Amino acid sequence: MTGLFLAVLFLSPAPPLSAAATAPRPLPATTVVAKYQQALATQKEPSAISFDYTLEQSGVRELDQRHRVFRSGTDERDEVLVVNGRELTTPEVRIFRGRRDRYAIGRLAPSPARYVFLFAGTQRDGHHLDYVFTLTPKVPGAFIVTRVAIDGVAFLPTSIAFRVQGGGHGTVRYARTEKWWVPLSADASAHVNRALASEHLVFSNYLFPITLPSSTFEKPRPLPTLPPSAE
């Protein structure tokens, strides 16, 4: 009788844990900010990268595009592949030199040296917590980060909300791809000539080659003009 009872006991499923028992325990806000500052200091940018992005603009201007970008350092090649649903037979290629990546996490992420971080709460992200802070700049400027959500594992931003002088505002969202922290999407809106203009970008298809050939950043040569055919 005892043996049968024990067998049934061990074969029976364990009662589910309560939500309180399975919920992760939040860290102190000061610890999160310190880990965030350390993560930013050690996060590097890839030496070379390629990705796609879609661009949708509405309001003042209606536009729908798909691009492919290659970047190495401050050199960038931007290929326009699709415009308003029409795939270009020959992509429009633009070459930029000395162009900094405005979405790079090290460039856009707010620093505790420049902002006061006020803890606003946590939000569940799978099996861990993200930490949300509202921000006040120590020195006002034309571009101000107003809110940041910090991943509770990597301690890097999952979203950065901002506003710009003149009333524009937006949000950039990030996540890890391989070992890099890269943007997933960016949204912005502003009133232009009393009309609301908005922009939505989605980034995808990230690749991180060791290097890119120098020809990547050379302007494409135009096709030769052939003489008329002899009759």
What general outline do the C-alpha atoms trace? globular
**Rg on CA atoms, Å:** 25 Å
Query: Largest beta sheet: what is the strand line-up?
Result: 4-3-2-1-11-10-9-8-7-6-5
Strand portion: over 45%
Sheet with most strands: 11 strands, antiparallel
Q: State the low-pLDDT regions, or none.
A: 1-15, 17-21
Number of helices: 4
> How far is the first residue's CA from the last residue's CA?
107 Å
Oligomer: single chain
Helix/strand class: mainly beta
Mean pLDDT: 88
The counted number of beta strands is 11
Percent helix range: 10-25%
Run of helices and strands = HHHEEEEHEEEEEEE
Question: Would you summarize the structure shown here?
Answer:
This protein is mainly β and 231 residues long. It contains 4 helices and 11 strands, in the order αααββββαβββββββ.
Description:
- This protein has 231 residues and is mostly beta strands.
- The protein has a domain at 107-191.
- Helix content is 14%, strand content 49%.
- Strands 4-3-2-1-11-10-9-8-7-6-5 form an 11-stranded antiparallel β-sheet.
- The termini are far apart.
